[in-house]
Specification:
By secondary structure, the chain is an alpha/beta fold. It has 2 domains: 3-124, Rossmann fold (3-Layer(aba) Sandwich), CATH 3.40.50.2300; 127-222, Arc Repressor Mutant, subunit A. 44% of the residues lie in helices and 21% in strands. The longest helix has 19 residues, at 105-123.
Length: 224
């Protein structure tokens, strides 16, 4: 079920939009200000955000900026009474779509569906588990506290290989064959160092790893 974050301070309109989105099969989290929307996005991942612009505490433009920092691939649709050219240009620079009030509910639903299709395309390169989001297209790992972009190209390749075969053992020979050319001669410690780096990122207890496991004498396994 697709999860939609809705921020609209006009109670009647919020109820109407929420009901119609839920009738389409979406799970909707509704807020009446931008600050609550940002907090909700910190607590869970959404597939789409629908934001009013003129809201108390934090307006829609600022809320959108903060949401994009938390989840760079999150599609955002502005829903606003501000129809002037400058507002529209600002909105489209920040977000993915801009719909002015009053609007047709059928048009809103169609725009939501189109944005979710874009999300599905982007999500094909995104893997989430536990409290982590790994984006193999934009090359970042998002945790609760930071966004990590410092992995080497080969580390990204190894992480992708392990995740693509989650819960299966990947031998050292297979790793060497797929990540290094026959003319290269990596140190036996190279893969081990990559694994140690992954554990620093993903494991709460590196001595008893839950996700990045070593299989003695064979290879490694990404476990879920």
């Amino acid at each position: 079920m697709k999860r939609i974050l809705l921020a609209e301070d006009e109670e009647h309109l919020q109820d109407t939009i929420k009901l119609n989105l839920e009738l389409e099969g979406y799970q909707v989290t509704a807020c009446n200000n931008g600050a609550d929307a940002i907090q909700a996005a910190k607590q869970q991942n959404f597939h789409l955000a629908v934001l009013d612009v003129m809201m108390p505490q934090v307006d829609g433009f600022e809320a959108c900026s903060q949401l994009k920092k938390l989840h760079p691939d999150l599609p955002v649709l502005f829903l606003t009474a501000r129809a002037d050219g400058n507002s529209r240009i600002t909105g489209l620079k920040l977000a993915d779509d801009y719909l002015t009030k009053p609007f047709n509910l059928e048009e809103l639903i169609l725009r939501v569906k189109n944005l979710l299709k874009r999300y599905d395309i982007a999500a094909a390169t995104v893997f989430t588990f536990d409290e982590f989001e790994i984006n193999f297209s934009s090359l970042y790992i998002k945790t609760k506290t930071e966004t990590i972009t410092s992995l080497s190209q080969r580390e990204w390749q190894l992480l992708n290989l392990l995740i693509s075969k989650k819960n299966l053992i990947v031998s050292r020979d297979e790793i060497l064959e797929k990540l290094w050319s026959p003319t290269e001669n990596p140190s036996s410690r190279t893969i081990d160092n990559y694994i140690l780096n992954f554990r620093k990122i993903f494991e709460k207890n590196q001595r008893e790893p839950k996700f990045i496991q070593s299989i003695r004498g064979v290879g490694y396994k990404f476990s879920l």
